Amino acid sequence: MNSTALFKRLGLSSHPRFVARPGKGAAGVQVVHSPIDGSVLGGVRLDDAKKYEAAIRSAQEAFEKWRLVPAPVRGQIVRELGDAIRAHKADLGMLVSLEVGKITSEGQGEIQEIVDIADFAVGLSRQLPGQVFPSERAHHRIVEQWLPLGLVGVISAFNFPAAVWAWNACLAAVCGDVTIWKPSLLAPLTALACNSIAEKVAAKHGHPGIFQLIIGSDEQIGKPLVADKRVALISATGSTRMGRAVGQVVAQRLGRTLLELGGNNAVIVTEEADLKLAIPAIVFGAVGTAGQRCTTTRRLIVHEKLADRVCKKLVAAFEQVMSRIGDPTAPGTLVGPLINEQAVKNYEHAVLAAKAEGGRVLIGGQRVKKASLKSQNGGSGLYVQPTIVRAPASNKLPIAQEETFAPILYVFTFKTLSQAIAIQNSVDAGLSSAIFTERFREVEAFLHPGGTGSDCGIANINCGTSGAEIGGAFGGEKDTGGGRESGSDSWKAYMRRQTSAINFSGTLALAQGIKFE
Ligand code: UN1
User: Fold this and answer.
1) Which residue among 160, 168, 460 has the greatest number of ligand 1 atoms within 8 angstroms of its CB, and so is best to mutate?
2) Taking the domains of the chain in order of start, what are their residue ranges?
3) 92-147: pLDDT as tens digits
């Protein structure tokens, strides 16, 4: 892959923050290595406290103008942003693949999510609906409207280095807000490329500064951003540990948070499941993005009568995947590398722990040697085998309570659906879940209106735990943080609500029948 030509087309090469050939240990520069082969893709100049302050001031200035632009006109700028991203889809997708190791179609899919959320936001720009309520007082009316919130800090993770920013930035923009994006230091090039496209569109329309990007460490940039009273909302995606720290600091200053944190997602397969649907969904859920989505299927909860059959089918499917691990940009690859050495260590640790706890490794469990890779272009050593671990008969496997960002699927068994749901809900996180069944009553038990079914923010029927569309609200409960991003009414997090009682009676009447004469 000729990254020089790619970077040129994306405008990275001429960007003042980009360093084409960063020297070893260059101060103030983040060197970006591709997880594919460990090669240096380039460097990005890091921001310091002074740059941070300048970004906030520029954001505040931009907000004063932007908030006064009618929402449908704001929408037109987001429409152009979506068009510009569309035009660069292939290149941006490739950049995602190079920087974080996604296979080509998943890299492209990530950029498609930007296009989709931009479309959604454009439509939304003609809505942002408030409500009207009847007043108890004659010739009065109660109305509510939604107003811009201000500065929105977006902290994103390496695994969705573009889409999650766009979920936030496109909604924030139509809501009249200014986005300040702090991307993961593992994926600053994707951030630089995407933000430059957005910023260019905004500047063309006389609104420079509504898409801010600040790149730096948690210490230098993350902490000041989270603690900054001038930033009305902090929308953070990442680990539960990070979210807990962010949540506490923002709560202290009574700011708003939107947290989208870890997942420990399960698929339940009942006796009534159609395995033709279940097996491929589980394989994609567990192995897609090399197990590094927050929606990755980490646990399978299968009826005991079906368990052996399902495991056999899954092992057969995983066997096919084994010969397609390698360079994610090569055609036919299904599994790319993990993001870094620490991720591989976490994988190895989880496999060892599972074994020590009585789990049986049905397939996988090893780092992939270079000679076994599908394509020889993969010298980073960050490739691991997708793994299935069957829990012991006791169904006890403590390591499965943890979210390990790697392709490991733990298999549990159940007798009754209520047992299955209890296992599904027994983890700290509550992001995504799914059930495979053709039986109506099992579906309804899983989605019970009393909340006794899945305790997750996402509860799918006959489709897997990952790959949510942007139209629904995305996020989860418990240790997942409770935030909702993307579709539905998630936009409300980016606006402030104002309720007005309007008196057109010509006399003053008090509510609750109070007389004060
Ligand atoms: C994430 O992993 O942080 O539902 C987001 C999915 C994607 C988004 C995942 N649309 O798998």
Assistant:
1) 160
2) 47-261+483-497, 265-478
3) 999 999 999 999 999 999 999 999 999 999 999 999 999 999 999 999 999 999 99
CATH code of the domain made up of 265-478 = 3.40.309.10
Q: Domain 47-261+483-497: give its CATH code.
A: 3.40.605.10
Q: How do residues 237-281 score in pLDDT, each as one tens digit?
A: 999 999 999 999 999 999 999 999 999 999 999 999 999 999 999
Q: How far is the CA of 102 from the centre of ligand 1 (A)?
A: 13
**Percent of the chain's residues with pLDDT above 90:** 96
Tens digits of residue pLDDT in 50-59: 999 999 999 9
Helix (H) or strand (E) holding 300: strand 297-303
CA dist 248 and 223 (Å) reads: 12
Pick the atom of ligand 1 nearest to 458's CA: 4
Q: How far is CA 253 from CA 217, 274, 403, 469, in A?
A: 22, 51, 30, 34
- Nearest residue (by CA) to ligand 1, atom 1, is 294
Q: Tell me the whole-structure pTM to 2 decimals.
A: 0.97
CA of 295 to the centre of ligand 1 (A): 6
Residues with a known catalytic role: 260, 294
Residue length of the chain: 517
Taking the centre of ligand 1 as the mean of its atom positions, its distance from the CA of residue 73, in whole angstroms, is 29
Q: What is d(CA 244, CA 219) in angstroms, rounded to the nearest whole number? A: 16
* Inter-residue contact 464 to 409 (CB < 8 Å): no
